[in-house]
Amino acid sequence: MPNSIPYDKEKAKLGKSLYMDKSLSKDGKVSCNTCHRLDQHGVDGLEFSIGVDNQLDKPFNTPTTFNSVFNFVQFWNGRAKDLAEQAKVPFFNPKEMGLSPELLLQKVNSNEDYVKTFKKLYGEVTVENIALAVAEFEKTLITPNSPFDRYLSGDQNAISAQAKKGYEDFKANGCISCHQGQNIGGNMFQKIGIFEEYPNQEDLGRYEITKREADKMIFKVPSLRNIAKTAPYFHDGSIPTLDACVQFMAYYQLGKFLDQKTVDNIVAFLESLTGEYHDK
To answer: From the candidates 47, 85, 96, 271, which is the catalytic residue?
Structure first.
């Protein structure tokens, strides 16, 4: 993973203000940061996030915003092609921030600092420009320099012997066939429940978007970066611990049970994927 990527600092500063602003919600109590907390690796640690009027944001567990710029699509079902398209959705989701486009524009235009900054950077306040600013900030939410990154760069002491063995087990058991690339995931769709049917069929993943039978239970493969910090796991937030997650993935995706030593090794490897976030 690169240590930084290009972004516009002024636009990112504006985007951060929008990201943190609870006034940009129906009840004035929810911001992007409510569910995607910067002090919790881009998540809130809940099975389902709590939106406006204390509504549970079911059926999906909140994915992290950290390193989301490297995902090939956004949301578990891939319904947004990029960060800017994704950033618009929570504002208008009745379970999340609960606004209409008109009300969002009214709230932003009531803030003189926002109006002045948007005029300078984008020319005007529009829904599209609001989303672009938030997306620009989200480009800064990358976490390079994990122990595993340092190991790949040649520091043989950056990770433990157990984590090294876990990396070999991760590859040998086929985990790497889906969790790969610089984000260690986030670059493909895959079915959950290949060898064994996944028990929760409440949401059918890509099928809900495409209505193609072949897309039932197809979801975006999540990044494993910072995975030790972003419990609970899976698209429905049903698995509370990392070792259980590894074992269930082996069962549903590989059709096997892993012995506890192998699970512990893989968990040690996954713990080495926690990177460094420097607030911008």
So the answer is: 96
Q: How far is CA 19 from CA 97, 137, 162, 217, in A?
A: 12, 8, 39, 31
What is residue 190's three-state secondary structure?
strand
Helix (H, G, I), strand (E, B) or coil at 213: helix
Tell me the pLDDT tens digit for each residue of 178-198. 999 999 999 999 999 999 999
Q: Which listed CATH number (1.10.760.10, 3.30.460.10, 1.10.260.30, 3.90.1150.10) goes with 9-138?
A: 1.10.760.10
147-271 fold: Cytochrome Bc1 Complex; Chain D, domain 2 (1.10.760)
Per-residue pLDDT tens over the stretch 69-109: 999 999 999 999 999 999 999 999 999 999 999 999 999 99
Parts of the chain belonging to CATH 1.10.760.10: 9-138, 147-271
> In the 8-state DSSP scheme, what is residue 100?
-
| Residues 71, 223 contacting (CB under 8 angstroms) | yes
96 noted as active-site residue: yes
Rounded to two decimals, what is the model's pTM?
0.96
pLDDT tier, 279 (very low <50, low <70, confident <90, very high otherwise): confident
The whole-angstrom separation of Cα 34 and Cα 75 is 17
Question: Which sign, positive or negative, has the C-alpha torsion 142, 145, 148, 152?
Answer: positive
